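On clarity, I found the account of how folds are encoded harder to follow than it need be. For illustration, here is how one protein appears when written out as sequence plus structure tokens:

:::
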Amino acid sequence: MIKNAFLVAVLLLSTTLQSQSFFGSQYDNYAGIYSVMNNPANIADSRFKSDINIVSGSFFAGSDYYAVKIGDLLSNSDFEAYAKKTPSDNNNLYTNVDFLGPSFLLNIDDNSTFGFFTRARGIGHASEINGLFLEKIQEDIEEDIDIQNQNFSIATNSWFEVGLSYARILFNNERHFIKGGVSVKYIGGLYSGYIKARNLSITYDYTGLELTNTTTTSGEIETGNISSLENFDDPIDNRGSGFGTDIGFTYELRTNESNANSSNAYNKYLVKFGVSVTDIGNIKFKEGEKVVYEADASYTDAEYAINDDFDSYYTRISESKSFNVSLPTALHFNADWNAYEKFYLNVNTDLNMNKETKPNSNYIKNTFSMTPRYESRWFSIYLPFSVVEDSGFLSGFGFRAGPITLGSGSLFNGLFGYSNAVDVHLGIKIPLYHTDK
């Protein structure tokens, strides 16, 4: 029973590969509509008359428990056989998938830009999981197990967004330049399921017989849309709705030389700084079932095989027919230096503003990145170097060639050794650039 209960939920996160989106590519001055995801102010005074996204996607999977090589990931379907494990008392797994659908930006005039975007996103995590316990249950259990006072959280959420963005120039005296932007988005909840343990203790008494192998538990479990751990990938059918907001500002320090050509086709800054807060808001599942259980129970493997519902073994303390899911609110700081002609150096920090152990909390992983790049109108190359919470140091490669963007923030880690993260992003769009005056 223990093997099924934990692995169904945890491996759902780690093997489907649902922090961060579009590593490195958002900071390019030719990112266009991509840049609205990190800071809506960036679409003002852009290098585009219009930028039309056809379809783009990014996924990230990271963990301080699993590490993989890209070659193994592509050639071997037995994940548990080739993955390197680093168990501890407190392991964490995290996945993030992000698809940008039909979207565009359009300059209204020299000062203002309008954006429209559609987006589908999914985040899954297992936080504060006992990795030593997970390691023991990769195969059938043939020994006694005892773990105490667990406070893990497991959650998977997916939703779609339809958003409008507006950005404009707020101040410009040729030397100093400030722009701001805001995005307002309708959120449609597609899927939500979570489990939060509070001081949960589990003892497994192995006798060698299914009829007498016994699991004893104590503590509390809170669930949302989940009737058992076995149905974690098929929760109670429900849909949610809500609203979200992103807001950001960008400052540019310009030189006399950079302002010699006033065309919108050219970058004019020596250095620019951006700050933004994204994903302010939540999703309400009005018919979702939230239940808190007193998990004091004892049952055999044979009993669990017949009926795995929590209600069969645990006592309901409280229940409600709705719950809220927080969006992954984050604070972003960004600095971009025009080092020489078409060569730039970007430094970016993404900070989570949600409590990771809160029941059903969506969040990003804290990330610091440094990305040197070469950029021109039709071609860019970028080399992101990042430190991601729970995944460590990552290095990758990406490029933009006209309408195509492709990259990975962890490519070199996985090619030359084990990586605690795997990510890739790919985009196809139609860029309509400003031309020289």
